[in-house]
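Board notes (copied after class):
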Amino acid sequence: VRLVESGGGLVRAGGSLRLSCVASGFTFRDYTMRWYRTATGKERELVAFISNTGEITTYADSVKGRFTISRDNAKNMVDLQMNSLKPEDTARYHCYTYVSRDYWGVGTEVTVSV
């Protein structure tokens, strides 16, 4: 199993970024996916969840209405569209799945300036 994130960067508050995670090594369409984030000095936070079909999505209260998780099972990709970014969204964002055990990508850094 391999998860590779991309799309992070530096953006001003109010801006947008789109993160992508390309998955390989397992039957992507059969598994749920999640995005987590870890900010300096804070515990890891579950940001968004998507079911294997994409029909069910859930979000942390802190990002509801601003972030959207989606997936393309034909491309083995899960995305996180982040709008109206705030400085408190600054963190390293990781793609996650469970296939007999936990798998994490190395993450992509998001920095939101004031």
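Comment from the instructor: The mean pLDDT is 98. The chain is about 0% helix and 55% strand.
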